[in-house]
Amino acid sequence: LKDLGEDGIYACGTVNSNRKHLPKLSPDKSMKRGETAFSVSDGKLCCLNWKDKRTVHLLTNFHDPTEEVEVNRKEKDGTITKVKCPGALQDYNKNMNFADKFDQMKGQYALDRKSHKWWHRIFFHLLDCCVVNAFI
C-alpha cells in the first residue's frame, strides 16, 4: 500500500492480525467495543484496529485515522446502539459491497468448464468477468 500511495493510487483494505511487519497495537482482548487503536508510518500508511464484536484490522494509505463517525449496531437483545467507528472503516464497508456483489454474481452465472488446457480456464474466467461487468 505504501508503494501504491507513492504512485497516486489510494487503497484501503482489511489485513490479518498475524501479518508480518504490522505494528504492535493494543491487544484485541483489552479493547472495548467502539475503541480504536492506530499507528501511522512515514506519514502515509495507517494501520487501524477497531473493536466491534471482533477486532477489525485495516490498512489504508489515504484516510485520516482520527476521523470518527457513529454507526448503528444491533445488540444481542435487539436494541440498536450507536458505536464510534473510524471513517476509514465506514468507507471500506460502503465500497466493499461491489466486490462482494461481483464475486457472488460470478459464482451464480459461471461459465467455467473443466479443461486440461490452462488457457481454456483463463478464457472462461475472463468471459465470466465480462458477463458480470456487463450486467452490473
Automatic annotation (TrEMBL):
Database matches in InterPro entries: PGBD (IPR029526)
Protein origin, superkingdom: Eukaryota
Domain PiggyBac transposable element-derived protein per the UniProt entry, residue ranges: 2-135
Pfam families for this protein: DDE_Tnp_1_7 (PF13843)
Stated name of the protein: Putative transposase is4
Species of origin: Amblyomma aureolatum
